[in-house]
Amino acid sequence: MRLASLIAISLVAGACSPAKETPAAAPPAVLTAEQLDSVRAGDAAYAAGINAKVTAAIFAIYAADANVLPPDSPILHGAAGHPDIAALVASGASDIVLHSTTAYGDGHLAYMAGTATFTM
Question: What is the pTM of this model?
Fold first, then answer.
C-alpha cells in the first residue's frame, strides 16, 4: 500500500512540474547598411520610373503581392494597384523626389518612411 501511494504521489508531482522550455529561435538579423542601400535604390528606381513615365520600370521593383503606399492615396494592393499607379504616371505626375527619413529592415522585411514631393 505504501509503495502504491508513493508511486501515485511521484506521478502527480511529475505531472505538475513545469514544462521544459524550448529555446526560442534567433531573431531575424537586422539588415546591413549595404542591404538598406539596396532598398533605397528601389525607392530611387520607383521615382526614376515615374519621372521617365515608364510604368514597366515601376512595376518591376514590386513583388506581385506588394502593397504600395503612394503619396496622398490609399494603399494599393498587389497587381490590382497597377492601374492606379499607371493612372498616376499618366496624370502627369513628374519631378518625384522621395525623401527617406527612416530605413529599417530585418529578416525578409524592409521599409522606408519619409516624405515625397512631386509636380502635377
Answer: 0.59
Q: Which of 110, 101, 97, 96 is nearest to 39 (CA)?
A: 110
Q: Nearest CA to 89 among 40, 46, 60, 39?
A: 46
Strand partners, 115: 99
Q: How many CB atoms lie within 10 A of CB 112?
A: 19
Using one digit for the tens of pLDDT, what is the confidence trace for 43-57? Answer: 888 888 888 888 888
Task: Look up residue 79 and give its three cell numbers.
Answer: 497587381
Q: CA-CA distance, 5 to 84, in Å (whole number)?
A: 75
Coil/strand/helix, residue 7? helix
3 state DSSP class of 90:
helix
